[in-house]
Write a structure and sequence with these properties.
Length: about 180
């Protein structure tokens, strides 16, 4: 969120009550508004168009390859083993749809089989013998910032059977706090 391009994303995050340490800890970022900023950057480092599409970072359009995420606050998504598997992204402009955009289904990312924040919440869930499931990224991050660290998100208003199976590895006690 550093630099002038990330000003709106930083303002959104701090406006929602996140402090600088939390923003840094959760590695929140900003995807610039340009159509091929990330594509150009990664291709200059040797990644192919096929690599970028398979990873869910780019799309193939009539005029070529372009960034999937543009002008969005970025939430890195990790699996329980702390490996980066995808991204969630919030639109910065009113009217931009969808409001939230996730990495599509890829060999690494399965939205229905992952819980946001589980990489940080797994041990606290075991210690508390309870998991609290909330709806989204900001809910998880805010809870952790204020010391409630057994919280994960389903990334939507429903929770899947795969997500419940994943949670059972850590506790049998699940509290749903969905809007």
């Amino acid at each position: 969120l550093a630099g002038p391009d990330g000003t709106d994303a930083r303002a959104y995050a701090t406006g929602r009550g996140l402090d600088e340490a939390t923003i840094s800890t959760w590695q929140l970022g900003y995807a610039p508004a340009g159509w091929s900023t990330l594509v150009d950057h990664l291709q200059a480092r040797g990644f192919t168009a096929a690599d970028l599409v398979e990873a869910g970072l780019a799309l193939e359009g009539d005029r070529g390859l372009y960034d999937r995420f543009r002008d969005r606050l970025m939430f890195p998504t990790r699996d329980a083993r702390r490996r980066l598997i995808g991204f969630g992204a919030r639109a910065m402009r009113p009217g931009d749809e969808p409001k939230y955009l996730n990495t599509p289904q890829t060999p690494l990312f399965d939205k229905s089989g992952n819980l946001y924040g589980l990489d940080r919440a797994a041990e606290p869930i075991r210690r508390a013998d309870q998991a609290v499931v909330v709806e989204g990224y900001m809910d998880v991050i805010a809870a952790h910032q204020f010391g409630v660290d057994n919280v994960v998100a389903s990334n939507g208003t429903s929770i899947t059977e795969k997500q419940m199976t994943l949670l059972k590895r850590y506790t049998q006690n699940v509290v749903l706090a969905l809007e």
